[in-house]
């Protein structure tokens, strides 16, 4: 029994020490590499990281980069722990007092004598440090009380009168991974002296750009990660709170909401989504097919269509270079039909860590992330040039937005600089009325895109979104961005009954 207790005590010590180290390493990685992140986001990615075959691979790459990044920090921890917790048998280091007979042991330390108790305390402290960094208390606060923001401000998507008159305009919507307006040059309110996205910066100057300042700028990041941004921009509705944890397990996602895909399908559009990753990730494919059943060309479908071989895999599936080649073919085919088309393209080359560079990318900067942004900007700019040369361009609106800000903290390190998400509307049917000093979010894209295509949105509001081509204020402009961000995360009886 004595031997069993000794083994149990030692095993407990090792397990708890390992847990403490893992927690501290996660904190170190988030703090120094990713920066500010909410518990909502962290929990979402942990729960959803395994859904979808390619999502697993992509998430694994992020986890692997985190482990490699943390190795030096972990080694320092281990060295310190060996010194203070090892029960030295052969060697002893102590300091004796000349004035008394007292002896102060350095090795073995008092920590080695009570090491199991101490490591329990360490684990608790490590857990507290990590939870404090991801604002766990804020998350709990949002779950303690229900919100009435839906009753006060949410406009039922099914009850909004949307109508089109005249010839319908095509839509090409490009979601760019982690694309910020912060990447502009300083002369255009960006963070860098030399622009990381000169092509996209020029497009923003020449066309309609909704800005958070008096010059070029962007949208406020209300979501923080891709899937949530895709849901909010296509439905003007937050993704369901419990779905944040395990979307891919849900039978239905936002099933009671009328999305932009529903509207365009009912108006006779051919609707298609093109992405180089697995669309089943976090339930996105399930969400799309529940609403209007658009054609989804993701990694798996591209293999079936023989766009790529079955063993083809780069970055998160299909890199943007190949994705744009596929997109041109798909758009050209759709343009041959007598029906208007709405094509959405989702890029991935600028995903952290450090982005992806193909063989055509120029390396003008010292860091890989900057070169990835430059290359992505050039590719999208060239795609826009290609679209403008096509016969269908005069009847086509192009929308380009980022999904959220980059999660790579070191890239833009000044916390005082106000970062924003990139957006531009090209060849819209509506002219810009009020584009400067706005508080715009992904939620506003749904009614704004409909309006830009020539549709009439009665009341200029859908869900939590506002038509930016109108004179109406957005919801964050009315109640404040921080209030909006907190309230939309809280449980809601209205949401559970009419939206979920």
Describe, in plain words, how this protein is organized in 3D.
- With 500 residues, the protein is α/β, with parallel strands linked by helices.
- It folds into 2 domains: 2-143, no CATH class; 150-498, Alkaline Phosphatase, subunit A (3-Layer(aba) Sandwich).
- The protein is 44% helix and 10% strand.
- It is built from 19 helices and 12 strands.
- It has helices spanning 2-34, 39-48, 53-85, 110-113, 115-133, 136-144, 149-153, 198-206, 226-235, 243-246, 260-266, 284-290, 299-304, 320-335, 368-388, 445-452, 475-479, 481-487, 493-498; strands spanning 93-96, 103-107, 162-164, 170-176, 270-275, 295-297, 341-346, 396-402, 423-426, 455-457, 461-462, 465-466.
- The strands form 4 sheets. A 6-stranded mixed sheet has the order 6-5-7-4-8-9, with helices on both faces. A two-stranded antiparallel ribbon has the order 1-2.
- A hairpin with a 2-residue loop joins β11 and β12 (465-466).
- α1 (2-34) packs across α3 (53-85) and α14 (320-335) runs parallel beside α15 (368-388).
- The longest helix is centred in the first third of the chain and has 33 residues, at 2-34.
- The N and C termini lie far apart (55 Å).
- Residues 48-57 have low confidence and may be disordered.
Helix run count: 19
Which CATH class of the largest domain? Alpha Beta
Task: List segments where confidence is low: pLDDT < 50 over at least 5 consecutive residues.
Answer: 48-57
Q: Sheet bearing the most strands, described?
A: 6 strands, mixed
Q: Give the mean pLDDT.
A: 85
Distance between the termini: 55 Å
């Amino acid at each position: 029994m004595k031997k069993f207790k000794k083994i149990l005590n030692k095993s407990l010590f090792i397990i708890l020490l390992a847990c403490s180290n893992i927690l501290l390493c996660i904190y170190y990685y988030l703090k120094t590499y990713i920066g500010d992140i909410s518990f909502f986001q962290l929990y979402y990615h942990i729960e959803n990281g395994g859904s979808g075959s390619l999502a697993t691979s992509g998430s694994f790459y992020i986890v692997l980069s985190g482990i490699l990044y943390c190795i030096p920090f972990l080694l320092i921890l281990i060295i310190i722990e060996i010194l203070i917790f090892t029960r030295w048998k052969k060697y002893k280091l102590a300091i004796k007092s000349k004035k008394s007979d007292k002896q102060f042991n350095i090795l073995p330390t008092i920590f080695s004598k009570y090491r199991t108790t101490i490591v329990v305390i360490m684990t608790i402290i490590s857990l507290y440090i990590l939870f404090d960094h991801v604002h766990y208390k804020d998350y709990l606060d949002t779950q303690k009380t229900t919100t009435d923001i839906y009753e006060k401000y949410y406009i039922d998507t099914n009850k909004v009168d949307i109508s089109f008159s005249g010839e319908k305009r095509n839509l090409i919507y490009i979601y760019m991974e982690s694309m910020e307006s912060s990447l502009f040059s300083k002369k255009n309110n960006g963070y860098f002296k030399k622009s990381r996205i000169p092509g996209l910066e020029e497009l923003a100057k020449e066309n309609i750009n909704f800005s958070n300042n008096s010059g070029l700028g962007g949208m406020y990041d209300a979501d923080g990660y891709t899937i949530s941004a895709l849901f909010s921009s296509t439905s003007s509705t937050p993704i369901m709170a419990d779905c944040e944890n395990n979307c891919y397990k849900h039978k239905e996602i936002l099933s009671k909401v009328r999305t932009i895909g529903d509207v365009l399908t009912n108006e006779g559009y051919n609707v298609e989504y093109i992405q180089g990753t697995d669309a089943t990730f976090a339930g996105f494919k399930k969400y799309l097919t529940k609403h209007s059943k658009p054609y989804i060309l993701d990694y798996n479908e591209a293999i079936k269509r023989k766009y790529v071989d079955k063993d083809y895999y780069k970055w998160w599936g299909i890199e943007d270079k190949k994705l744009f080649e596929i997109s041109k073919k798909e758009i050209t085919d759709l343009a041959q039909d007598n029906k208007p088309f709405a094509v959405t393209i989702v890029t991935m080359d600028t995903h952290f860590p450090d982005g992806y560079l193909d063989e055509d990318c120029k390396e003008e900067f010292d860091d890989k992330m900057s070169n990835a942004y430059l290359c992505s900007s050039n590719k999208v700019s060239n795609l826009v040039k290609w679209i403008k040369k096509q016969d269908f361009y005069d009847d086509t609106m192009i929308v380009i937005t980022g999904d959220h800000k980059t999660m790579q903290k070191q890239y833009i390190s000044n916390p005082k600089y106000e970062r924003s998400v990139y957006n531009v509307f090209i060849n819209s049917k509506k002219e810009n009325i009020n584009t400067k000093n706005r508080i715009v979010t992904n939620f506003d894209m749904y009614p704004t895109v409909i309006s830009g295509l020539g549709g009439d949105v009665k009341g200029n509001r859908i869900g939590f979104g506002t038509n930016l081509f109108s004179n109406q204020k957005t919801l964050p402009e009315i109640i404040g961005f921080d209030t909006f961000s907190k309230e939309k995360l809280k449980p809601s009886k209205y949401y559970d009954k009419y939206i979920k």
